[in-house]
Amino acid sequence: MMRNKDEKKDRTEQMVLLLLMVTVFVISVIRAAVSSMTYDEAFTYCRFVRRIDPSSLRAFFDSLKFAGEEAPTNNHWMNTLLIFGADRIFHTAYNEFVIRFPSLLFFAFYLIAVFKGRRKGFYSGITVLFLIGNYYLGEFYSIARGYGMAQTLVFAACLFYLDWKESEYEKDGSLMLCAAFLALGVTANSIVVFILPSFGIFWLIRLIRKKKLKDFLLRRWWFVLLFFAFVGFFALKQMSDAGDKFAEEKQGNFFSEVIGGMIGMFVKKPLLMWGAAILLVLVTALSIFCLRKKVFERDLFWMFVIFLAVDLFASLILHNEYIAGRFTLPFYGMFVLGFSGLFSMAARSLTESGAKTAESSGKPGKSEKTVRRIFADDRLIPAVGLILLLILGALYLNKLNVHTVSEWNFDENRGEKILTGYLINGEYSDVPKETPSFTDVFYREKAEYLKERYAGLYE
Questions:
Q1: 298: helix, strand or coil
Q2: Which residues does 176 contact at the CB level (< 8 Å), separation at least 6?
Q3: Rounded CA gap, 87 and 49, in Å?
Q4: Which of 93, 111, 112, 352 has the maximal Cβ count within 10 Å?
Q5: How many whole angstroms separate alpha carbon 345 and alpha carbon 364?
Q6: Are 396 and 135 in contact (CB under 8 A)?
């Protein structure tokens, strides 16, 4: 009877999560179909995709170089090349939805990976709510940039790392797939390079502790060489072709920029942001105190801590901005998995310590009894999940707008405005009282392309 009850509860949870995943995916698909191109998308398409020359290897790489103009750098090679491929496969040009199709495809892969990770028991249903309920992340999956692609690949690497850990670090295949997805992530967005030290340190630690490092290097030397050659080539190539700036000047301190930036994906009001940040720090500190030595078993959490240290160190060396805002999107899934794993392990530890105290004393104390009752209550997790679902849902719906992306809200309905100006004035003029945008160039080129393609119909 208990088993049937648990199975029914699992099926109900899976159905709810699937419904939520389909909902957020459909919203992103609609936004990809109806919203105007953003500045960065337009520049990528007009200045890189349309100019790719596959006639020779040298011409191919030259066409992906940063041209020295004041515009976004092309450090999202995978995105550029997949758009180029989509154009050829679907035989289209200047089609907004086709341009964004590769990013949507990666969103589908991400949602499938999230669902499979839950099925394997790597995390709870509550963790899934945070993985799919980030509206800001959903926006970037609906536009033709590499942030979402990189997030999918880094998240997949995390899942393969967890699978490697679950096998007691025995499955070479999981370790190699973890490394392979990270390497591909560098081609999606060169910022992924900054997470490699975190994984590399823990790969070494676990292999050394298992006394398998030498054996692994002897058996997989070809993969190690290929990994470093691939990552080194693409990282150096993308960064060298990206101009002389990695990011803008710092706007605030490290905590407000990075941690505040993560929380700012959900809430923008300073009071709520700081409240959530303080709560996160307090719960993290309490979890570490509760777990003591066991805390070092939470690999992904410490990987994220190392990433923060690398971020701070690189910022000081390069005199650039911290990896904040949209630059943290490729690491969002890792952030959620790291902290949720820490919190869930601390909760289990509280329950177990309460039980042990009761056994040793013969009769549980009042506080231990209360803790055990709270964490043993079958209604706790569903109640917490429902509350979080309502909160995240309210935040999501409050921001919902399929016509714009918050980072480039000045490009909202830009295509329609450009066309309207042409119909009224007979020429392509700048949109009055609007921030200048390369999106205008995209829509002017699109109009000229269509005029040339269909001119014969009206002669």
A1: coil
A2: 220, 223
A3: 9
A4: 111
A5: 22
A6: yes
Tokens of residue 163, six digits: 């699978």
Count other C-beta atoms under 10 Å from residue 426's C-beta: 8
Report the alpha-carbon distance of residue 58 to residue 368 in Å, rounded. 69
Q: What is the pTM of this model?
A: 0.90
Q: Residue 352, Cβ neighbours under 10 Å: how many?
A: 12
Q: Is 248 in contact with 320 (CB distance < 8 Å)?
A: yes
- What type of residue is 23? T
pLDDT of residue 364: 55
Q: Which of 271, 414, 411, 254 is nearest to 322 (CA)?
A: 254
Q: Is residue 436 within 8 Å of 68, Cβ to Cβ?
A: no
Residue 428 CB burial class (10 angstroms; 0-12, 13-18, ≥19): middle
Please determine, for residue 354, whether its predicted confidence score (pLDDT) is greater than 60. no
Rounded CA separation 101/148 (Å): 12
Within 258-380, strands assigned E span none
CB 216 within 8 A of CB 203: no
Long-range contacts of 436-440 (CB under 8 A, 24+ apart): 437/39, 437/42, 437/408, 437/410, 437/411, 438/39, 438/42, 438/43, 438/46, 438/71, 439/36, 439/37, 439/38, 439/39, 439/41, 439/42, 439/411, 439/414, 439/415, 440/414
* Residue 103, C-beta contacts closer than 8 angstroms, at least 6 positions apart: 32, 79, 140, 141, 142, 143, 144, 145, 148, 149
Owner of token pair 């829509």:
443
Residue 362: pLDDT over 90: no
Buried b (16+ CB within 10 A) or exposed e, 198-209: bbeebbeebbee
Q: With CA atoms as reference, report the closest residue to 244 among 44, 81, 70.
A: 70
Q: What is the mean pLDDT of residues 372-396?
A: 73
Cα 107 to Cα 325: distance, rounded to the nearest angstrom: 19
- Asked if pLDDT for residue 289 goes beyond 70, the answer is yes
Confidence grade of residue 71 (pLDDT, cut at 50, 70, 90): very low
Residue 245 has pLDDT above 50, yes or no: no
CA 177, CA 156: separation in Å to the nearest integer?
9
Mean pLDDT along residues 93-107: 95
Whole-number Å distance between alpha carbons of 136 and 143: 12
Answer with the residue of higher pLDDT: 251 or 297: 297
Across 59-68, average pLDDT: 71
